[in-house]
Design goal:
Strand content of chain B: 5-15%
Strand content of chain A: 15-25%
Number of strands of chain A: 13
Number of helices of chain A: 10
Number of helices of chain B: 14
CATH topology of the largest domain in chain A: 2-enoyl-CoA Hydratase, Chain A, domain 1
CATH topology of the largest domain in chain B: 2-enoyl-CoA Hydratase, Chain A, domain 1
CATH class of the largest domain in chain B: Alpha Beta
Number of domains of chain B: 2
Bound molecules: zinc ion
Largest sheet of chain A: 8 strands, mixed
Strand order of the largest sheet of chain B: 1-2-3-4-5-6-7
Helix content of chain A: 25-40%
Shape of chain A: globular
Number of domains of chain A: 2
CATH superfamily of the largest domain in chain A: 2-enoyl-CoA Hydratase, Chain A, domain 1
Helix content of chain B: 40-55%
Distance between the termini of chain A: 19 Å
Order of helices and strands of chain B: HHHHEEEHHEHHEHEHHHEHHE
Order of helices and strands of chain A: HEEHHEEEEHEEHEHEHEEHHEH
Distance between the termini of chain B: 68 Å
Oligomer: heterotetramer
CATH superfamily of the largest domain in chain B: 2-enoyl-CoA Hydratase, Chain A, domain 1
Radius of gyration of chain B: 21 Å
Largest interface: A-B, 67 and 60 residues
Radius of gyration of chain A: 18 Å
Shape of chain B: globular
Structural class of chain A: alpha/beta
CATH architecture of the largest domain in chain A: Alpha-Beta Complex
Chain lengths: 293, 322, 322, 293
């Protein structure tokens, strides 16, 4: 899809895509101005929307909601969500500072989402895929039983229907309020990703800001090709934990996409506007393989 | 003499034990009454110890799991394995001493062994980074997993780490990548995998070698998504509330069995595994051998299916589905 | 203006070319005789160039293969590939810029591309270490080989390196291990592999990505077990005897075809590939496409057998066997 | 085999194993004294022979000939050489400084061997293996067509007969006098090693001093388990080449077995006296696999 097509598609869907709540700063009527987190300049929200929510001044990538991610990546009208009803419960009766059930309720209210990941069937550049997108507004897109289950089903549906998987990740890590049930989702999702790989079905991940902890250290980096958005923070241990451990400040740019690229961990840092075309082209290679064009 | 490590909750017990030891060091031949009192004290202490250890809180168990005298991976290997050949290196960067990898024989079963390796003293702990693994350690583990699979050797792992090391170099060399790849590999390994939680089970660094077809947990071993201290400092902004948080995290051996993650709790002697290590080694040897025998009769396709189903079933979800 | 790189053996030719260029820059409208002389000089130069390049010594070819203006891997990729996606990193240590790895399309064939990557100027050459690969570069290559195999993409490689980097860190990170593993992987890859020698073929560092089901050598590309300079300094204790040694090493494209190692010599324009790169790009594209087409019809088992047989046949031995 | 068994076996074979010429310093009658290369002490040659040619003072491992290697590793009387007739020719008519044919002739005379590697069937601790040993006296045990061919056949015989492979390596690298024919032996031997690995037959290598260049960078390090003798120099580029490239001196211990162990490249540094038992035990694991003892 070309960028101008994307514009058109975006316009067409602007008032119909009611499911996903808009990103921070975007839940304001058109014509409102927002401040860029990075360069601190004032940006016209409408202009931001036209620019994939990338700051026109400094290139800072604003957070996207899961549904905005879907809109960015999926061919227009092709996305059909599944398992929206798979949600977190409070299996441990977890209360620390505040009850987990309260966190869940407020996450649902704030995000308008039942859980931190949205999964569904779609096409991207015409290729049938299962597409998943995580939403940081939902308890930091942490992975508990429900996120683990939905990601696992993403791989399983793809395997059953011989589709590729595309996952847009964002996460603070495992959801500690579900204790060991959360930790084990790392093994569960990794096992599902492996089954997909054994069947030689392609899996692409797009690491967005931030992707940390148990999500990075499981399915997020098991992709055949790993893309990352510019400036995204991606890693295992959080910067504060590392600073506390080593008792010194971290170098500038540590754990950014660009840092990871230099250290051999991701294939490419792709500005958001180029993502749909990039994912499409990658699917052309991996879905069709050596078949002559 | 080495300074003893006394945990808060056992302080009354240890004070009595010290008193008993002092009394026993006296020559009580002329004082048979005192001698009988001593024996009575000893019996009281035994009861107190049993009671104390029968009702440890999760946070107290964490203390036991971290006790410096607690038997470590290398102690288990020395005690229950024969014909041990340690294997070294990841073939790309280094040899992480925080992971022990070996070929070994347990009760007649030829296996590959992996374990987190803490030190027994400061210099060992520095070399082994207190059992906190760097990416090259997980990559060494993966190399040995592949070797085990290639030659049909079952894998036995010992879990005992505070967590994967959170450091600059670990991140630079792809800590998350190494853990993820290890999870993937372990999940699909075509040989039996028996994991034993012997001490600390700290998060992703533990999980990377810490699941399989069986998970046997020592009574005072813990396994947790996050350390209680870290959890408390995030949720309460107060690491001091670790004890409270530990009770929420469902991280004890018994909790894990309840959640369908672990298969069995292996009881420890009152006072913890370090009070009677030989007893614990014997029990671990027996349980591991039993598991290996049971799994040895399962075909590798079936083994794979069962391991996947086992993982697949973990989690508790609500559903609004029709 | 960039300073021209003039090779010793072409100095007479270049002097004439300079003279010709000077003459051509004059306004010769009033002097038709001189104009015809100029054309005659041009013709003479063409003849001289043809003659010079028709009979280059191996050492002279080495000079041509190292010419700074010679087209490099990235030039071939830019010229003959479409839809290029460069892939980065070995997932364990770094992204070695001395290896280019990409998904690309050549004449309708979707392939993976690997090549040694030299720079075009000093800063590029520093970043790319003059095309001398570290272990992480070979590991990046292996990652992409596995990706290509997984998705059935044929592999096209471009060989152009003075050799694997001889340095402390390269040894620390297992240079020999990385090369050996790459040789092993490449030898068993279940997709077609077409290798093209475009410049320098320096020893193990070249070989690590430099063989397959076809080896196409540009006329002035070399491929050698050791650089002539190093060979001369070992055998003669005199690196100055490189020219002499180059003639012994059987390292030219023609030699390689004679030894059964390369399949064909791709002629270069007189003056070398850098004099008419478009012509060379066209020829390489055509030959690679032909090879891909031929190999595309071979089943992967058969492909493997043929590649093994191809390697298996290389070598000349005596035999006292009965 | 225990060390005392080895002693006995060695004694038994002392006067029957005529094929291999003795190592440097060992071609002297019993009772002669030799100087240790490492500690410079004078050692009684008979004592050296009893001690696997390891210096009793400093532990320095003297070079062994290929036949001494075989004697060290193979069960007594079990070794049957094959392909002794596969030898180097001079396919390129190579003359630089001196003709290759002259080098070959003098190597044959000095070593008493037809080529730089000796290969044969044997048992080690009762396990049927194909055993190969390289001999540094033969043009630095460099790999030309004949060495490449014999190593390749070693893997092929093992594959055909379902034996394990044990290779004791030593080499200065590729044999430059055979030009590209030598370089290609790296690919050929690696391809053969891969075929063995695909059939899950075990391959153990023992890296001895020195193993460099094209031999290290091909079959030598493709083993399932890599052992190295103490103090052996093992690497890709030679120390002098590296010093010339980086213009500085190399750290002490660089490229030794111990250095490689620390850098994760070998499984174990095994003193020579323990090698037979170690190889036997490894074969117990890898040949029998998970079969219950
Ligand atoms: Zn901005
Ligand atoms: Zn000595």
């Amino acid at each position: 899809m070309s960028i101008s097509d994307w514009f058109k598609a975006r316009e067409a869907r602007r008032y119909t895509s009611a499911k996903g709540a808009p990103a921070r700063g975007a839940d304001l009527p058109d014509g409102v101005w927002v401040t860029c987190d990075s360069c601190k300049r004032i940006v016209y929200d409408g202009q931001l929307a036209e620019n994939f929510r990338v700051c026109p001044s400094c290139g800072h990538h604003f957070d996207l909601t899961a549904h905005q991610r879907v809109e960015l990546l999926a061919d227009p009208g092709s996305f059909t969500e599944f398992d929206a009803g798979v949600t977190s419960t409070d299996p441990l009766g977890f209360v620390a500072a505040k009850p987990y059930v309260t966190s869940l309720a407020s996450a649902r209210e704030r995000s308008g989402l039942p859980e931190a990941v949205v999964c569904g069937r779609a096409t991207i550049g015409g290729h049938p895929v299962v597409l998943g997108a995580m939403d940081f507004r939902f308890i930091g897109a942490s992975m508990g039983s429900a996120v683990g289950e939905k990601v696992t089903r993403t791989f399983e549906v793809a395997l059953a229907e011989r589709r590729a998987v595309v996952l847009s990740t964002a996460s603070g890590g495992a959801r500690m309020q579900e204790g060991m049930l959360s930790l084990m989702q790392m093994a569960k999702t990794s096992a599902a990703a492996r089954r997909l790989a054994e069947e030689r079905l392609p899996y692409l991940s797009v690491l967005t800001n931030p992707t940390m902890g148990g999500v990075t250290a499981s399915f997020a980096v098991l992709a055949d090709v790993i893309l990352a958005e510019p400036g995204a923070l991606v890693g295992f241990a959080g910067p504060r934990v590392i600073e506390q451990t080593i008792k010194q400040h971290l170098p500038k740019g540590f754990q950014t996409s660009e840092f990871l690229l230099e250290h051999g961990m991701v294939d490419e840092v792709v500005p958001r506007g180029q993502l749909p075309a990039r994912v499409t082209l990658l699917l052309d290679y991996l879905v069709r393989g050596g078949e002559v064009a | 003499m080495k300074r003893r490590h006394v945990m808060d909750f056992e302080r009354p017990l240890v004070e009595l034990e010290d008193k008993l030891a002092e009394l026993r060091s006296l020559d009580l031949a002329q004082n048979p009454e005192l001698a009988s009192e001593v024996e009575s004290l000893a019996a009281q202490i035994d009861v107190l110890r049993e009671e104390t250890y029968a009702s440890l809180s999760p946070w107290e168990r964490v203390q036991v799991s971290r006790h410096p005298d607690r038997p470590k991976t290398q102690d288990y290997v020395a005690a229950i394995c024969t014909d041990v050949i340690e294997l070294h290196g990841d073939r790309t960067f280094g040899d992480d001493e925080a992971i022990l990898a070996a070929l070994a024989t347990i009760d007649g079963h030829r296996v590959a062994v992996l374990g987190h390796r803490k030190g027994k003293n400061t210099s060992e702990n520095i070399a082994r980074n207190f059992g906190m693994v760097h990416p090259e350690g997980f990559r060494k583990a993966m190399r040995v997993m592949r070797l085990a699979e290639k030659f049909g050797l079952p894998l036995v792992t010992f879990i005992d780490t505070p967590g994967a090391y959170p450091g600059i170099e670990a991140e630079e060399r792809g800590q998350a990548w190494a853990i993820a790849e290890s999870l993937s590999l372990l999940s699909g390994l075509r040989v039996p995998v028996v994991a034993v939680g012997i001490g600390e089970g700290g998060s992703g660094g533990a999980l990377a070698i810490g699941f399989g077809d069986r998970l046997i947990m020592l009574e005072n071993a813990y396994y947790s998504v996050i350390s209680p201290e870290a959890c408390a400092s995030i949720l309460h902004k107060d690491a001091g509330k670790a004890a409270e948080v530990a009770s929420c995290l469902s991280m004890t051996a018994t909790d894990l069995v309840g959640l369908g993650i672990a298969d069995e709790v292996l009881p420890e002697p009152a006072g913890g595994a370090h009070r009677a290590p030989e007893e614990v080694f014997g029990a671990v040897r027996a349980r591991v051998a039993t598991a290996l025998r049971e799994l040895g009769s399962v075909g590798s396709d079936e083994l794979q299916e069962r391991r996947y189903a086992r993982l697949r079933a973990i989690g508790v979800i609500g559903s609004d589905e029709g």
